[in-house]
Amino acid sequence: MGFGSNPGMSFGSNRLRMRPGTVGSRAISSMAGPFGRGIQLMMKSSQLTFHESRFQSKQAKAIRRLLFRFGGYTQRVASNKFRHKRMRKWEDKGKVWWNGKPYMSWKYSKPGKAPFPHSEAIPAHIKFSVDVPRRNVIIGPTPRAQHIVKLLEYGGPRTMWLNYKKSKSGRLIMSHRKQDKRKMTIQYKERPFMRPAWRTTVEKRLADFLSDPAIPQSFRNVFSSAAKGSYK
User: Fold this and answer.
1) Per-residue CA distances from 18 to 14, 39, 163 (Å)
2) pLDDT for the residue 231
3) Which of 10, 94, 199, 216 has the fewest CB atoms in 10 Å of its CB?
């Protein structure tokens, strides 16, 4: 038995002998019969696996890019709400310093609106984090700022030391001394800024972020549904 038509290969004495330097692409392409088709099929299968791996890598990169774009844009929108810092320029007629000097107070936004920035502390602590393996993005305050941001975003009670003494004219006496203060619980009113930032991203940029053809359609549907439902 022999395969005389296959250059570079011959059978003899129950063993396969290979003639050096003669087995190459020409030999593989000219093989006939089931053995030849098997070689070709294996090559095609290998190429298919390679292309599939490259395709999956392209999809993974597109999803990673989507998560970073969504998180980064939402972070910028939220931080920009604190771009113009408000200073203590308003004289509060209902308050006075303990030494009789006028008390200059902050301006506050109306409940339901984004808070006026009094410092750079809050925007400095608004970050986003992407979990690539889980295909998830988290946008919000760092642990150090979580408590105050939660109060601003959703409102709620907070207990703190506050001035309570009043002057003869009925104005609240402001002092840094502890003996002039007592613990009181006040109710913060809701002044959201993270949810509006998320909503802005969804309404203005989500369609653009999802337009990358490398993002699988199934993931687009899931991400779009989750994004539109998470800020309410």
Assistant:
1) 13, 17, 97
2) 53
3) 94
Domain ranges for the chain, please list them: 61-230
Q: Based on the number of CB atoms within 10 Å of its own CB, is 86 exposed (0-12), middle (13-18) or buried (19 or more)?
A: middle
Encoding tokens for residue 5? 């038509």
State whether residue 32 is helix, strand or coil: coil
Query: Is the pTM for the entire model greater than 0.85?
Result: no
- Alpha carbon 207 to its chain centroid, in Å, reads 16
Do 27 and 6 form a contact (C-beta atoms < 8 A)?
yes
Quick one: DSSP state of residue 139? E
| DSSP run (H or E) holding 126 | strand 126-131
Reading the block at residue 143, the tokens are: 């642990």
pLDDT at 149: 87
Rounded to the nearest 5 percent, the helix, strand and coil shares of the chain are 45, 20, 35
Query: 């999956």: which residue's tokens?
Result: 56
Neighbours of 68 (CB within 10 A): 15
Give, in order, the Cα–Cα distances in Å from 184 to each of 162, 167, 177, 181, 205.
7, 19, 16, 9, 44
HSE-CB for 191 with a 13 A CA cutoff? 17
Inter-residue contact 7 to 17 (CB < 8 Å): no
For the chain, what is the radius of gyration of the CA atoms? 35
**pLDDT at res. 81:** 84
Query: pLDDT below 50 — which residues of the chain?
Result: 1-49
User: What residues contact 205, with CB distance under 8 A and at least 6 apart?
Assistant: 69, 70, 73
In the numeric block, which tokens belong to residue 162? 């506050």
